[in-house]
């Protein structure tokens, strides 16, 4: 704690010694937060939508649903590059330095395969049971986001990237 | 909130809990209500503090300062910096007019021309488990409402001092939940004052009462400036067990300050307070008999009492607060005795002819040098490091007087100090200039450096080759002088004097770029330092000129000596290495030590044993476990994108990382790279002008790297946790010295690629 001498090299302490790993922090945040902002684009115009999400255990995939008759759906059909923003404002709004956020980048795929539809519907319903009828509607589309990377932001400006392991649950 | 809730008269505060007026004021008003004589006064309630924070948006400022990284990863220097910035915001934030009017009116009731004491009164400040005594500020002899307003602000700010933050960290208290009330009372002018304990604070013995007394005010006793008279009683039997007279130079130490009747009165108060409050009191008092006045009462801190054999951490935290008298004594001792002694020791060792010593004599010499290094390392910790408070004291003093927007404006006052490292750096720059002006000389040096093996001695042919080129003689003379005067130092277990090629490379790199930053604008900056000094003198007023000059002297002296001491101790280490290298050569030469064995100072014992062993037995050394450099960070799915630290020098720059850990890394450093290291040390400051930017693990606005970078106008971010583990040579980084952010990688990248 005191001034350090220049006489000897001292081992620097990395954050990993005390802090949980980035994977754990991302996992905790995405499991804790039920909603996220889905960012889409089309015709040079970015667009944001609040969606209910769920994430696979290995954090490689996310799932959300949307009615087909929406701008969001149309934009996803036009361009499958998306970003998803998840944050802890609802839990820690009194202190900006304690807010965590993740910007997730990846690509979306509309699920049509029956097995996949079933598997990812269950995943989403496990967190959002109120969406049962919504998901059952033929006008609702289910999307999987294949995550390329997570940008985890803490302490206002500390940003670390993490890529889920390849060979994922998708 | 109404103004009436901001100010509460002590007379009407009997029922106010500590959560409203803090522990000190709450105890005092309760006891005043029970008939104890107390000084008249009022409390500035916690609500006023909260309102001040809210009105000036200070809570987010505190959150950002303390949230930059986990408090347990912040070094003291970083906490000091955060505390300084918070303090400056407090000083520069206005009080609400309504509140000011209330203070003016309350002070008027006490008297606008009489001295007042303005003390902290935080809830939970004092208890049987912990005591913040001395960690929060108190101001004595404050006269007039304006001065009281200032003192209130300073007392509030002291909630966020480095010492108070560290103590909260130690106790695992959340600093962000801290609050502060303030107690304003009429100063009592009595002939004696003191403290009294209702149990023995060293042993916790409840049948002991201890009374200490000094002439005049109690502050001198609490600050440790005056040696008190002391009495120990068996409390129940009222029997005097021991007493001693304080050693004081004021001539009144010949007779006891308190008579038996005075002591009895204090003992009776201890009993009454314990009966009323339910705890053995630690009380401050002033006056005697009928004029005995209670200044404050709190529980004797049991944690302190029970830790007889442990050092009370609070004592250490208290030592962080510069005491000008102690600082002056320390600086004078360091400048007048220790540094000259250290310099002389280095010179004597360097002058010693080791080659003529026989093996036994060499063993003796080695041990002497090892012990000398150990002795000076201890002095370094015990006396040199505390001297750094001189600069910090100057900073606080300057900010209090001048109230600058930038709390580090005072650093300009340190510019231009004649330090060993600046003399060395100047010499290196002059050599670089010579090389730049003489192409032949430059070509020769390039050839020499390129052909040299990694760690070799300087090419013996270089001397004669230099003589043959224009400017070569001058260059050679400088090189010889530089090696003997400034490079006889150890860095990472290597003598830099043994690495002439590293120096030549640096000179060559500097010669490429030496329309040097040092030359740029230095006169203008010196003028700016003069202007700051003038501003300080004017604001402080003529009556404080002597005080200002002394604070400046101590600040500058401590800044200079804190740089020099590192180099001078490193010189002793270098001389230890010289003897060790010779000893190891002898043992290796006679086949008694493995030729590949790595010899480090820790093995002095084994080496000396070998030298003294007349049987010629072989010497076996333990493994050092030391490697050249460290492994590059392992590839991981996690990569840093933005690292945050402290914005230590403004500016923004992009470049390739060069991590400097070892003496070899010094040699590898190239112009335009980003210098990444644990901490810029005085032995590597000559590299800074070559750097595009500086990033350090060690944090602090007053550490060498930060100050040198600011002087040279190079962006610097420091206090970045674990950076030498996550950054690799050759990585592109953008260093934002305005915000304290290091961005890793290109600004634009393919989002589809895995990091």
List the helices and strands and how they pair.
The complex is a heterodimer of chains A (170) and B (755).
Chain A: H1 22-32, E1 35-42, E2 45-52, E3 54-55, E4 61-67, H2 71-78, E5 81-87, H3 89-92, E6 101-110, H4 114-127, H5 132-136, E7 140-154, E8 158-162
Antiparallel strand pairs in A: 1-2, 1-5, 3-4, 4-7, 5-6, 6-7, 7-8
Chain B: E1 7-9, H1 18-33, E2 41-44, H2 46-55, H3 58-67, H4 76-91, H5 97-110, E3 116-121, E4 138-142, H6 145-157, H7 162-170, E5 181-186, E6 192-197, E7 208-215, H8 219-222, E8 229-234, E9 239-244, H9 260-277, E10 281-286, E11 293-299, H10 302-306, H11 313-319, H12 324-351, H13 359-387, H14 389-402, H15 420-437, H16 439-451, H17 461-467, H18 472-485, E12 490-491, E13 494-495, H19 500-513, H20 522-540, H21 545-589, H22 604-612, E14 638-644, E15 646-649, E16 652-660, H23 663-668, E17 674-677, E18 693-696, H24 704-712, E19 716-718, H25 723-726, E20 732-736, E21 741-744
Parallel strand pairs in B: 16-17, 17-18, 18-19
Antiparallel strand pairs in B: 1-2, 2-5, 3-4, 3-5, 6-7, 6-10, 7-8, 8-9, 10-11, 12-13, 14-21, 15-19, 16-20, 20-21
Helix pairs in contact in B: 3-4, 4-6, 4-7, 5-6, 7-11, 12-13, 12-21, 13-21, 13-22, 14-21, 15-16, 15-18, 15-19, 16-19, 17-18, 21-22
């Amino acid at each position: 704690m005191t001034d350090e001498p220049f006489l000897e090299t001292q081992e620097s302490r990395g954050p990993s010694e005390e802090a949980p790993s980035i994977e754990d922090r991302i996992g905790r945040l995405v499991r804790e937060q039920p909603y996220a902002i889905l960012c889409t684009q089309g015709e040079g115009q970015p667009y944001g939508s609040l969606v209910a999400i769920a994430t696979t255990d290995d954090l490689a995939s996310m799932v959300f649903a949307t009615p087909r008759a929406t701008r969001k759906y149309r934009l996803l059909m036009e361009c499958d590059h998306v970003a998803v923003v998840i944050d802890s404002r609802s839990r820690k709004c009194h202190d900006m330095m304690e807010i965590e956020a993740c910007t997730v980048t990846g690509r979306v795929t509309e699920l049509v395969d029956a097995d996949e539809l079933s598997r990812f519907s269950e995943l989403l319903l496990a967190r959002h049971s109120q969406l049962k009828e919504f998901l059952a509607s033929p006008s609702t589309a289910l999307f999987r986001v294949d995550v390329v990377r997570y940008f985890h932001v803490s302490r206002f400006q500390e940003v670390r990237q993490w890529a889920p392991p390849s060979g994922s649950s998708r | 909130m109404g103004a009436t809730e901001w100010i509460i008269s002590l007379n009407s505060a009997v029922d106010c809990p500590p959560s409203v007026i803090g522990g000190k004021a709450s105890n005092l008003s309760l006891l005043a209500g029970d008939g104890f004589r107390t000084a008249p006064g009022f409390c500035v309630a916690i609500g006023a503090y909260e309102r001040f924070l809210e009105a000036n948006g200070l809570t987010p400022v505190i959150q950002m300062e303390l949230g930059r990284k986990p408090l347990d990863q912040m070094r003291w220097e970083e906490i000091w910096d955060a505390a300084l910035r918070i303090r400056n915001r407090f000083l520069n934030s206005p009080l609400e007019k309504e509140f000011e009017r209330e203070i003016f009116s309350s002070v008027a009731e006490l008297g606008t021309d009489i001295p007042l004491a303005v003390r902290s009164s935080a809830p939970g400040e004092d208890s049987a488990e912990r005591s913040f005594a001395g960690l929060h500020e108190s101001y004595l002899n404050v006269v007039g409402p304006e001065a009281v307003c200032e003192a209130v602000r300073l007392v509030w700010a002291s909630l966020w001092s480095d010492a108070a933050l560290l103590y909260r960290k130690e106790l695992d208290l959340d600093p962000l939940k801290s609050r502060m009330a303030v107690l304003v009372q009429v100063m009592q002018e009595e002939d004696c004052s003191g403290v009294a304990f209702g149990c023995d604070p060293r042993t916790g013995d409840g049948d002991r009462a201890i009374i200490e007394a000094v002439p005049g005010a109690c502050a001198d006793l609490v600050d440790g400036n005056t040696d008190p008279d002391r009495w120990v009683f068996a409390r129940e039997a009222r029997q005097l067990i021991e007493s001693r007279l304080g050693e004081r130079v004021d001539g009144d130490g010949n007779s006891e300050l308190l008579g038996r009747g005075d002591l009895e009165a204090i003992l009776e108060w201890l009993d009454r307070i314990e009966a009323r409050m339910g705890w053995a009191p630690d009380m401050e008092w002033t006056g005697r008999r009928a004029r005995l006045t209670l200044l404050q009462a709190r529980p004797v801190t049991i944690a302190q009492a029970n830790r007889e054999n442990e050092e009370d951490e609070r004592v250490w935290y208290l030592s962080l607060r510069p005491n000008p008298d102690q600082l002056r004594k320390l600086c004078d001792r360091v400048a007048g005795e220790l540094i000259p002694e250290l310099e002389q020791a280095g010179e004597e060792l360097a002058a010693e002819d080791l080659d003529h010593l026989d093996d036994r004599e060499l063993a003796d010499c080695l041990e002497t040098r090892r012990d000398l290094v150990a002795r000076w390392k201890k002095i370094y910790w015990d006396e040199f490091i505390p001297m750094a408070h001189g600069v910090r004291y100057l900073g606080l003093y300057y900010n209090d007087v001048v109230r600058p927007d930038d709390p580090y404006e005072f650093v300009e006052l340190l510019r231009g100090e004649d330090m060993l490292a600046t003399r060395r750096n100047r010499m290196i720059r002059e050599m670089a200039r010579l090389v730049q002006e003489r192409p032949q000389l430059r070509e020769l040096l390039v050839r020499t450096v390129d052909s040299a093996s990694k760690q070799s001695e300087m090419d013996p042919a270089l001397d004669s080759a230099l003589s043959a080129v224009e400017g070569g003689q001058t260059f050679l003379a400088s090189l010889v002088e530089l090696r003997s005067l400034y490079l006889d130092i150890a860095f990472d277990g290597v003598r830099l004097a043994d690495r002439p090629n590293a120096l030549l490379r640096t000179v060559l790199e500097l010669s490429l770029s030496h329309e040097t930053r040092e030359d740029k604008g230095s006169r203008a900056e010196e003028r700016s330092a003069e202007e700051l000094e003038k501003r300080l003198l004017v604001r402080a007023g003529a009556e404080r000129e002597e005080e200002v000059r002394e604070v400046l002297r101590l600040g500058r002296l401590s800044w200079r000596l804190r740089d020099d001491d590192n180099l001078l101790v490193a010189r002793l280490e270098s001389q230890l290495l010289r003897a060790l290298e010779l000893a190891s050569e002898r043992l290796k030469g006679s086949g008694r030590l493995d030729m590949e064995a790595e010899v480090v100072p820790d093995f002095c014992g084994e080496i000396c044993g070998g030298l003294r062993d007349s049987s010629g037995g072989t010497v076996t050394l333990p493994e050092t476990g030391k490697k050249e450099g460290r492994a590059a960070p392992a590839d991981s799915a996690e990569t840093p994108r933005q690292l945050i630290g402290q914005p230590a020098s403004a500016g923004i720059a992009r470049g390739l990382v060069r991590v400097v850990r070892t003496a070899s890394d010094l040699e590898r450093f190239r112009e335009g790279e980003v210098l990444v290291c644990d901490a810029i040390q005085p032995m590597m400051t000559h590299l800074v002008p070559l750097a595009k930017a500086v990033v350090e693990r060690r944090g602090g606005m007053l550490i060498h790297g930060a100050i040198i970078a600011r002087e040279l106008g190079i962006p610097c971010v420091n206090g970045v946790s674990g950076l030498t583990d996550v950054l690799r040579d050759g990585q592109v980084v953008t260093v934002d010295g305005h915000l304290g952010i290091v961005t890793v990688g290109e600004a634009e990248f393919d989002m589809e690629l895995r990091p």
